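Standup notes
- DV: blocked on the single-chain target, sequence here:
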Amino acid sequence: MNYSLFSIFDVKTQIFSQPFMQRTTSEAIRSFQGTCSDNNPNNLINSFPSDYSLYLIGSFDESTGSLASQHPQQIANATEFVKQ
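- DV (later): unblocked, structure below
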């Protein structure tokens, strides 16, 4: 099975987070949405949503163990999901 690799980019630090795998982009969006909308004031994504975006950065083939990177493609911004 092929998995997509995603990362959250912080525009202020100019750093991508540790990558995570999901089977589909929709699953990654749902996971990111859950992180963004937890209403925890200590959550930096919740506190500064315009600073964080979800990116597709590559893929992983579990049958061969191969990784393929790609130019990061923005999928969503935290501002779309943070509850005001």
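- Follow-up: The chain is about 20% helix and 45% strand.
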